[in-house]
Design goal:
single chain; 376 residues; Naphthalene 1,2-dioxygenase Alpha Subunit, Chain A, domain 1; Rieske Iron-sulfur Protein; 2 domains; five-stranded antiparallel beta sheet; globular
């Protein structure tokens, strides 16, 4: 109700939540390889990342193996129902103990394809092929290298540097309450895809504002959304911003006691440094997790489509397919297609800096947080 009221007030006044001033960001933030490597290391290898949804690992033995930012990670739910994360590298000679992807290990064990060493879901070494001839060593110290891992607010958070730990309550702060209200653990994973994208910041800038929606997304997400109108709230490095749907003005003629705000607003939860959760509309949700690629010009995005329940009827399946396709088109054919053009043109020198307007407080906040968390 409060968010709808804030948006309606802005809509009627022709205003939006704004930053105090315009922000300028020089091109080295997008192009300089040394700066990029430093920021990626500080932010993606030394902060907790939401590398899976809890609902992706519902049962003991369920796992997800994923390699991002140069780190192969194995996430697995143990028999005690606790989720753990390890570097996906055998302690013998470093081969991955399973291929990237989702799966289920009925025995809760993972066998290295190189020399058949076996590890359990707790990361312990439980089998050595030809052990009588291999020689004696301390098996208790030869398990998989464990990484920080904690379930919180519907996500599995992982730290990519061994030995580092995090206080997730402190990291999420008030943002946790916002995520928990979405009840993500009880949604249904309908579809998931991996999408190549332009550079990290070019990509992420596009997730953080509605200023472009009328121009870039006239027939997809912008079709029913009012451009250049938002409310903006921050929770430490994290953000929640809300767009108004084109039906928002109808609320002015309805008593507040009769409002159904969900029909007129669109919530975006933006977790630093790399996930965007949008939708929660009509029983659908779109989650994007953006990871830097091997250089400043590339990213990969894991795009996940959730439905409030598993679609079963033809109508439900058709509705889910339509939502999924809109999400794919909006990102692949619209945002990223334009983003690749921007990325290709950066080195030409047409811009000394980018300007983020007062009406783009979300982008300003993100770049300020990059500066904060990458500082030496």
């Amino acid at each position: 109700m409060a968010l709808a009221r804030r948006l309606l007030d802005h809509h009627q006044a022709g205003t939006t939540d704004m930053a105090p001033d315009i922000m300028r960001q020089t091109m080295d933030a997008y192009l300089d390889e040394e700066r990029w490597a430093h920021e990626v290391d500080k932010i993606f290898r030394h902060l907790p990342l939401p590398m899976a949804l809890s609902l992706e690992l519902p049962e003991p033995g369920d796992y997800r193996a994923i390699t991002k930012v140069g780190v192969p990670v194995l996430i697995v739910r143990g028999k005690d129902r606790k989720v753990r994360a390890f570097i996906n590298a055998c302690s013998h000679r470093g081969a991955p103990v399973c291929d990237d992807g989702h799966g289920h290990a009925p025995s809760g064990r993972f066998s290295c394809p190189y020399h058949a060493w076996t590890f359990n879901a707790e990361g312990s070494l439980v089998g050595v092929f030809g052990s009588k001839t291999f020689g004696d060593f301390d098996r208790d110290t030869a398990g998989l290298t464990e990484l920080f891992c904690e379930e919180h607010s519907g996500f599995v958070w992982v730290g990519l540097t061994a030995g580092e730990t995090f206080d997730m309550d402190e990291w999420l702060g008030g943002f946790a309450e916002r995520l928990q209200s979405l009840d993500l653990e009880n949604w249904h994973l309908y579809e998931q895809r991996e999408i190549p994208g332009p550079g990290w910041k070019v990509t992420w800038d596009g997730y953080l504002e509605g200023y472009h929606q009328a121009a870039v997304h006239p027939e997809t997400v912008g079709k029913n959304t009012i451009a250049n109108l938002m409310t903006h709230d921050t929770y430490g490095p994290h953000q929640r911003f809300v767009f108004g749907r084109k039906s928002l003005g109808e609320l002015a003629d309805i008593p507040e006691a009769e409002w159904n705000p969900d029909d007129h607003i669109r919530l975006i939860h933006s977790g630093f440094p790399n996930f965007s959760l949008s939708g929660i509309l009509g029983g659908f949700c779109l989650i994007s997790q953006v990871y830097p690629g091997p250089n400043p010009n590339q990213t990969t995005t894991i795009q996940t489509v959730l439905t409030a329940k598993k679609p079963e009827t033809l109508e439900e399946i058709a509705a889910a397919d339509e939502f999924s396709e809109i999400g794919r088109v909006a990102i692949v054919d619209e945002d990223y297609a334009l983003g690749f053009q921007i990325q290709e043109g950066l080195a030409a020198g047409g811009n000394e800096y980018f300007m983020f307007g007062r009406n783009e407080p979300t982008i300003q906040h993100y770049h300020n947080m990059v500066a904060k968390y990458s500082a030496d």
